[in-house]
Design brief:
The chain is α+β, with helices and mostly antiparallel strands. It is 33% helix and 21% strand. Bound molecules: zinc ion (2 copies). One zinc ion (ZN) binds at residues 213, 224, 226, 331.
Length: 354
């Protein structure tokens, strides 16, 4: 186990009168223990940790996790109750965003401890990345950016969105990714008005925008990037909308620096689109953290007061979605530096005409 990460987890929970924590988020378990299996429950205290897995994962856990005890149990929550009782824990903290109601009820019924709902976002412990993580994030981004450029050359009018998505996914995996962090988005023409339009059998046509949102997973770490390209020559309105979104993206990136609150970056992107008369068409937040999960802390959205810190990694992705017309989203993943930020994803965001 990374004792430095476990210590940081405890220091983040200052003043909490709990004996231990219940962690159920797979990404946070991996972050602290190194365990990569898809199902486990983690009991962690100031002194150490106990990972509860079923028999499918016992050998794997022994290989991947150092300095923690591994407990095999057919029912992981029953195993958790037994491990907590053995250690005499009376108060166990949990993150309400990560525990299902049925598991909560089961623990209340079976456990000899009180469950304490924590107000802190335990997941936020992963927001600032260390040097090793930054390398993996860069590698994931390089794989997906380069794969996109490979596939971009092959897009022709008449190709179906799903064929483009398949080809991109294949290229991303061929170039070294374990998988993609989400089903790739390819949305053309009017479908571009759907912010998360999954690829369909629709053919891309000359004169249309095509929004492609893509990423790779490399050794657990994700990348996330969106390019909107035009097939042929852009019309005047397309140029206008693209330039507005690009300006929102660029100005938001320029606004990033350590010490500011997350929402101030969102305000910049939103302000540009409002000035262009397009604010109404930008419904989602400006960005989200990227790491072991493709959506994690910090969120870059209105009302988000989290302080931006050096080596946080998150997206900047303003978009405009006009029903019946189409849409544009421009997304880069950035790393916060001492005085600003630098892009982790690498495809140029000048408008590509293909
Ligand atoms: Zn994306
Ligand atoms: Zn994103």
């Amino acid at each position: 186990m990374s004792s430095e990460r476990r210590k940081r987890l405890w220091s983040q929970l200052d003043n909490k009168k709990v004996d231990a924590l219940l962690i159920t988020s797979g990404e946070t378990i991996r972050y602290i223990t190194g365990f990569t299996g898809s199902e486990s429950v983690f009991l962690v205290s100031r002194r150490g940790g106990c990972l509860i897995v079923d028999s499918r994962y016992t050998s794997q856990a022994h290989v991947e996790c150092k300095n923690i005890s591994i407990k095999e149990s057919r029912n992981k929550f029953k195993g958790f109750v037994a491990a907590a009782a053995q250690r005499g824990f009376k108060k166990i903290g949990f993150d309400p965003q990560q525990l299902t109601v049925s598991h909560y009820r089961e623990l209340k019924k079976e456990g000899s401890f009180a469950l304490v709902e924590l107000s802190e976002d335990i997941e936020a412990i992963r927001a600032v990345k260390d040097a090793g993580e930054l390398k993996l994030l860069k590698k994931a981004a390089d794989i997906s950016s380069n794969s996109f450029l490979d596939v971009l050359d092959e897009i022709r009018p008449g190709d179906r969105e799903e064929a483009i998505a398949r080809s991109l996914e294949y290229t991303i995996k061929k170039n070294g990714a374990e998988t993609t962090p989400f089903p790739l988005i390819v949305a053309s023409g009017k479908r571009g008005a759907l912010p998360h339009g999954l690829a369909t059998g629709k053919k891309v046509r000359r004169g249309e925008f095509v929004t492609v949102d893509f990423g790779a997973v490399y050794r657990g770490y994700c990348s996330d990037e969106t390019c909107t390209v035009v097939i042929g020559k852009p019309a005047q309105k397309q140029k206008m909308v693209y330039q507005a979104v690009k300006e929102a993206h660029d100005k938001a990136m320029n606004a990033v620096r350590p010490g500011i609150q997350a929402h101030t970056i969102d305000v910049v992107a939103r302000g540009v689109l409002e000035q262009a008369g397009l604010g109404h068409y930008f419904g989602h937040g400006t960005g989200h953290g990227v790491g072991l999960a493709v959506h994690e802390a910090p969120r870059i959205a209105p009302d988000q007061e989290a302080i931006i810190e050096k080596d946080m990694v998150f997206t900047i992705e303003p978009g405009v979605y006009i029903p019946g017309w189409g849409g544009v989203r421009i997304e880069d993943t950035v790393r916060v530096t001492r005085g600003g930020c630098e892009p982790v994803s690498s495809v140029s965001k000048e408008l590509y005409c293909i």
